[in-house]
């Protein structure tokens, strides 16, 4: 295993890999760059390095091999599974300075960007060129493309557009040996054996450091229509989903509970209507042809069946944005409560049975904890947030949540689901990986990791050992 103490001579050698001013050791910098949005593991990096080029990333990796120091690749640090936490003296390789748009190809409709480019900046660059980058989520203003690739980020429009994996045409990566690989090179068709690009998507920086990505763009959608619906019970959610999907081309179908709504309203959002309900849905579709009429017909049919209690449809972009705040503002509104986050998924058809069993388990095992459910239910992804009670020590809270997560993992396994739908495995979900991946799969993942990182310097302790 790599050393965790950084000797003065090693620190001097690290400074020689880049501009010395971009090697940080101030305690405030170590705290800032050494953690992600999780707060369950204390950061303890030995230094931070901010390379500005691929050559500098290579130099840092070769330095790490020589000095046997572990590296933690770091993007926008918006992760929720501890994948970018440096808890044991590692050097954090922060890609913040590698944030440029390198090329736009109007024929191929691709953007090639450095890994540190912020997701929202990529979306804006696409929009300025009359095109659309569809991977979208609440942290888009902070997250970076390299981190999106590392976790195969999803978000609110997976239902229509898929995950990050579906929009990556090529990657440039620096492996754990310091070698640069150019993977797929933006090709649409490439039948030349293993597509190594896809190994790095979702690998959480354990195989190499993503330094550039070529991203596919598409036609911008028509003006969207956004609806918020009030539902009487959980059983109605998937029936409403099926009814709307039969009538309109949904780009998003998100749900949240009354508890989630209470928190986001307290955080500044506006109540969509006076009717109160235990469950709510936000759905979005393109306003083309008779789509709005068809959506209203679906609403009326569901209401007649008792599946809907109320609803509202946005009449402007500003109203659409306000309605989306009810869903996208939930995570921020819960943050002061130090939530323990379960990010799980099952096949869409399995959602009702899984949700019923999981709700029973959660109610039984967390009788005194507030639990907030929300998520991308249209693609089978549920977020279960357990809020820390006041007065309960954080370590005791995490321990209890870990105990229940192990039980939840058994439910997930029975339903053929995943312990991590879009947040990655990192440090926090690794103990439960066996509920999603079999022993043979995990062994193969360990073997693949050893090939690309034979010195075991990249993001140690994350994903698989």
Give a quick summary of the entry.
It contains 15 helices and 16 strands.
Question: Can you describe what's shown?
Answer:
- This protein has 465 residues and is α+β, with helices and mostly antiparallel strands.
- The chain folds into 4 domains: 8-97 and 448-452, Uridine Diphospho-n-acetylenolpyruvylglucosamine Reductase, domain 2 (2-Layer Sandwich), CATH 3.30.43; 101-216, Uridine Diphospho-n-acetylenolpyruvylglucosamine Reductase, domain 3; 224-331, Alpha-Beta Plaits (2-Layer Sandwich), CATH 3.30.70; 338-423, Alpha-Beta Plaits, CATH 3.30.70.
- The protein has 15 helices and 16 strands.
- The strands form 3 sheets. Strands 13-10-12-11-15-16-14 form a 7-stranded antiparallel sheet, with helices on both faces.
- Helix 8 (235-247) runs antiparallel to helix 10 and helix 13 (351-365) runs antiparallel to helix 14.
- The mean pLDDT is 96.
Instruction: Enter the CATH topology name of the largest domain.
Output: Uridine Diphospho-n-acetylenolpyruvylglucosamine Reductase, domain 3
Return Rg in Å.
23 Å
Largest sheet: 7 strands, antiparallel
What's the CATH class label of the largest domain? Alpha Beta
CATH architecture term of the largest domain: 2-Layer Sandwich
Q: Which structural class fits the helix and strand makeup? A: alpha+beta
Proportion of residues in β-strands: 15-25%
User: What separation lies between the terminal Cα atoms?
Assistant: 11 Å
Uncertain regions: pLDDT < 50 for 5+ in a row? Answer: none
What's the tally of helices?
Answer: 15
Total beta strands = 16
General form: globular
Helix content: 25-40%
Mean pLDDT: 96
Biggest sheet, spatial arrangement of strands: 13-10-12-11-15-16-14
Counted up, domains total: 4
